[in-house]
Amino acid sequence: MRIGELAAKAGLSKDTVRFYEKIGLVEGRRLGNGYRDFPPEAIAWLQYVRTAQALGFSLAQVARHGAELRNAPDPAHALSALLQEKLEVVDVRLAELTALRAEIASRIGAACPLRT
Question: What's the number of CA atoms in the CB half-sphere (13 Å) around residue 71?
């Protein structure tokens, strides 16, 4: 399918699909007329990329783990392991933000809030 059809079915702009192709997240072949031609499975893959981004994964992480997930004997298990790692990162960050919030709250109303 051509880039416009892929973009529409995946809910992306053509520029986004071109960018993803440029960085290696999706591959299309070039037809004789120069148009890009993408396989039907590219739709599901691009939807996966968007979901992964919404869950806090960077495009670099998606690219790094994409082949690993596609080639895993049990992709659901491999994905669950990646989600568990992400959850641990979120928990650490949440603890850091909670401590920062407490520190900021303790300084509100102080004579000089920037002094300890």
Answer: 5
Taking residue 68's Cβ as centre, other Cβ atoms within 10 Å add up to: 12
Question: Is residue 75 pLDDT above 90, yes or no?
Answer: no
Tokens encoding 9: 């079915």
Distance, CA of 89 to CA of 44 (rounded, Å) = 27
What contacts 36, CB < 8 A, 6 or more positions away?
2, 3, 21, 28, 29, 30
Q: Is 38 left (phi over 0), alpha (psi -120 to 50) or beta?
A: beta
Q: Based on the fold, state whether residues 63 and 87 are members of the same structural domain.
A: no
Structural domain of residue 23, as residue ranges? 1-71
pTM over 0.85: no
